[in-house]
């Protein structure tokens, strides 16, 4: 009987408005990774299905899932077995929904299970954040919930807060890619003291509003001066779509990750908000796809 492993990893929305490079939410949209152990194989056969299959490499050394698996193998000093790795992708790539973080976290969790490495989640987070460069996406992909994370030269650590289904998330992705490189390039190198204070107050207000379920305060908490005003210019008609979400009843709306996906926070009739956002893109000649999602509070799991 062939030994098989299956990992499921959630999409994530990073930054969450005022929480630049610190906050992230896991969402109920998933990538699945399957591995069939075949000892007779010398290496791995990689199969990609779903979104991004035309662009994701099937060369082991160039594939992000495989790179993460290899780091775990090197860390614990065990070789990876031969076999077939199948990636089933539903998270849109290069859209600000954590596709790269899902690949990294999925590879780490899969290798840990296959090699019986027994790494703690804290150990996995350190590896993932080092690969990604920042923890705001990889933390919720691993832990689930709303994650507030800290990273320094020594460690990465996160606090995870579960979010109930009374708050939903509408994500809409236009057929426009925003690379992380481009999204970083448009940011200012220096911010003034007033902008820093503005964001500290907003992110504190945002987290406590979620904790206390005061969802009418979300729009204020999501306000940002560090990245959203600059990155929204990379998303054609992005400001109009955010306004359409608010006009349709969203409690707040902002950029998901570095874009191009936009995310709205809703407490009722998420489909109405979704339709309004899609139509706002359509009025300006852009095709988009979207989902009404909840928070995934369990993170990546072995099934």
From TrEMBL:
Q: Which domain of life is it from?
A: Bacteria
Q: Where, subcellularly, is it found?
A: Cytoplasm
Identify the enzyme class.
transferase
Q: Which PROSITE patterns match?
A: GHMP_KINASES_ATP
**Gene Ontology BP, a term:** threonine biosynthetic process
Which pathway?
A: Amino-acid biosynthesis; L-threonine biosynthesis; L-threonine from L-aspartate: step 4/5
The answer to whether keyword Ligase applies is no
Q: Where does ATP bind?
A: 92-102
Catalytic activity, EC: 2.7.1.39
Looking at the record, the residues that make up the GHMP kinase C-terminal domain are 227-281
InterPro entries in the record: GHMP_kinase_C_dom, GHMP_kinase_C_sf, GHMP_kinase_N_dom, GHMP_knse_ATP-bd_CS, Homoserine_kinase, Ribosomal_Su5_D2-typ_SF, Ribsml_uS5_D2-typ_fold_subgr
The terms describing its cellular component in GO are: cytoplasm
Q: Which reaction does it catalyse?
A: L-homoserine + ATP = O-phospho-L-homoserine + ADP + H(+)
- Gene Ontology MF annotations: ATP binding; homoserine kinase activity
| Record's keyword annotation contains ATP-binding | yes
Q: Supply the alphabetized keyword list.
A: Amino-acid biosynthesis, ATP-binding, Cytoplasm, Kinase, Nucleotide-binding, Threonine biosynthesis, Transferase
Q: Where is the GHMP kinase N-terminal domain?
A: 63-145
> Which Pfam families did the record assign?
GHMP_kinases_C (PF08544), GHMP_kinases_N (PF00288)
Q: What is its main location?
A: cytoplasm
Which family is annotated? Answer: Belongs to the GHMP kinase family. Homoserine kinase subfamily.
Which NCBIfam families has this protein been placed in?
A: PRK01212.1-4, thrB
Q: Which function does this protein serve? A: Catalyzes the ATP-dependent phosphorylation of L-homoserine to L-homoserine phosphate.
**Can you name this protein?**
Homoserine kinase
